[in-house]
Amino acid sequence: MPLVAVVIYGAMLLALAAGAYAWGRWKAVLWLGVMPWAALSLGADVAWWSGLWDRSSEYEPLPLSMFVIPIWIPCCSAAAALGVAVRRVRDRRGSRAGNSIA
Predict the structure, then answer these.
(1) Does the pLDDT value for residue 49 go beyond 70?
(2) Three-state SS across the chain?
(3) Distance of CA 88 to the CA centre of its chain
(4) CA 44, CA 52: separation in Å to the nearest integer?
(5) pLDDT over 70 at 102, yes or no
(6) Sign of the C-alpha dihedral, residues 65, 69, 75, 76?
(7) Mean pLDDT across the stretch 19-34?
(8) Are 100 and 36 in contact (CB under 8 A)?
């Protein structure tokens, strides 16, 4: 994998973790880590199958969902879960020490 791709995918995972940290609730894993990627990959496959997106010029056009669902969605879900977990641990430690803002 080229270095540029590693940097871009890493930045996307960091952005997901930061967004989930800011959200601070476990439903961020579903709404940031699963739903957008599943919708985009399945939507791209439907557009390809229906003929709206012509991918015939590609070397071997394959459905995107067969790569996104088993590989990318678990990575995104793990990044979002890590962000929420860090936020929860940080909030719990702050409330025990009496430093809670709320």
Answers:
(1) yes
(2) CCHHHHHHHHHHHHHHHHHHHHHCCCHHHHHHHCHHHHHHHHHHHHHHHHCCCCCCCCCCCCCCHHHHHHHHHHHHHHHHHHHHHHHHHHHHHHHHCCCCCC
(3) 19
(4) 9
(5) no
(6) positive
(7) 97
(8) no
Amino acid identity for residue 48 in this structure: W
Residue type, 11: A
Please work out, in degrees rounded to the nearest 5, the angle formed at the alpha carbon of residue 84 by the alpha carbons of 75 and 88. 150
The contacts of residue 82 (CB under 8 Å, 6+ apart) are 17, 20
pTM: 0.83
